[in-house]
Each structure stands twice: as structure tokens, then as C-alpha cells.
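Researcher: Structure for this, please.
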Amino acid sequence: MESMSTVTAQQGSTWKDYLVLCKPKVVVLMLVTVLVGALLAVPSWPDMMILTVALIGIGACAGSGAAVNHIIDHRLDTKMARTKNRPIAKGRVSPEQGLIFALLIGIGGFALLWFVVNPLTALLSLASLLGYAVIYTLFLKRATPQNITIGGLAGAMPPLLGWTAMTGQVDPNALLLVLIIFAWTPPHFWALAIHKKDEYAEANIPMLPVTHGNHFTRIHIVLYSLLMFASTLMPFITGMSGWLYLIGMLLLNARQFWMVKLIFDETNEKAPMELFKYSIQYLLWLFVLILIDHYTIASRIIG
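Model: Predicted structure, C-alpha cell format:
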């Protein structure tokens, strides 16, 4: 039976299926944060050759981790509407093919980072890959409703990777960017988890709304939104950014708390998904603001 599914996968798979295994939308968002970290690490423009190789290598490692996630979760994926059509879950790519693909791009990305960028970035990228693909996907996701909180550290690493790619060292400001994404991750995913609660329950994944209910999850979204608010003020407090960034973030956070307020209205079934979507815009605008502030002389004068 296994050989039959492998033959089917070999006949039905295309390059698009392997691209889907990499979760390209997630990787692109992640690479945006890598780029931001790289740009903030230097006072002017970074070395474009090193930056390009770093983005390719980090992206390949991230894609490898995403493919391993598909492999480990392919049985669970068949039970959820949003994942049931993934290539491995659908049988278009076999787990063996997916593993070979993941190893090839993962090793390739690590080698690029090690030999062209620097060993520190390569090792941190490997740690991030293993943290997401193995520690989170294989263990935390199935073991605890705090899976997103604990596993979020791996997803918060990209700005640090961009920073180390340019400087070869860990900087406190880079760790501050990690803290921001770490605090952003739980409200982002718990909003989705409320919306997809029944699917997570069907798949027997102990997401917070499944184990503790929607109200408990909403309270935790508020608490982590407060932590996120505090952490987003830190770049201004430390002098990393100026008034332009601060004003923009106050507006973004005001909108965040308004969206959080709406999820407490149980009659508004769209609110959790709207918060989830807004959280993506929130993160993108945060990094746009911090970059504009970084490169705007006028902002420095005002600050």
C-alpha cells in the first residue's frame, strides 16, 4: 500500500507542490523580518551580495522546516479543512519525497550561510529550523496548550538572523526585535485558534480554546497584547527609534486593542479571523515604521 501511494505521489506531484511544502507566504513574511533586521544592523546600506545570499540561505532553511512540518503533520492535516489539500496530506507528494526535498534545501541553505555569510547565522538558522520542525511540530504542538507560546521563540528568530548576517554578532537591539515577535505570536495564532476551534478539536490538537475555552483564550490574548504593546515601546525607550516610530506604533496598538475588544462579542463570529488578519498587517506596518524611522534624518532631528 505504501509503495502504491509513493507511485501515485510520483505521478501526481509538480514543482508547485514542492513550493507549497515550503509554505511560501509564511517564508516571505519571515524574510521581510530578516531583511528588516539586516537593514537595522548597519547605519547605511548593507553589503547587497551578503544580504542576498543570507535571504536565500535563511529562506531555504525555513522552507526545509516547513516541509518537515508537512511530513510530521500529514495525518493531522487530513482532518482540518484549511490543511486537507496540502500535497502530502492529499497524496500528491509522498513523505519520503518530502523528506528528501527538505534535506536538500536545508543542507543547501545551511552551507550557503556557513561558507558565504558566517557560521553564527548558519547555526542560529539551524536552531530555528529544528525548533520549529522538531521541538514545536513533533512535541509541543501535541503536548501543551501553551505550544504557541513556547514554540513562538523559533518563529521570532528571523530579525536576529538578518542582524547576525550583517554583523556576525548578537546585539541587544536584535534581541529586542525577537521579543516583539515573540509577544506578537500568541495573540496572532490564538485568534485563528478561536476561529478554527472545532477543527483543532477534531484533530485532537490541544490549542488553548480547545482545552480551556474561548473566554480563557480571549483573556490571554489581552495579556499578550499588553506585553506586545510594552515591547513595541522599547525601541523608542532605548533610542533605537524616534518619534515617527512611536506615534505610528501608538496608533497600531490602539487599533489592536479595538480589534481585541471585538472578539469578546460572542455574536461576532468574524471578529477572531479579522484580528488574525489585522495582526499580519500590524507586524508589516511595525517594520515599515521602524525602517522609515531608521533612514529618515528628519525623524532623528525631531528625536
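Researcher: Any notable elements?
Model: The first helix runs from residue 2 to 12. The chain has a mean pLDDT of 88.
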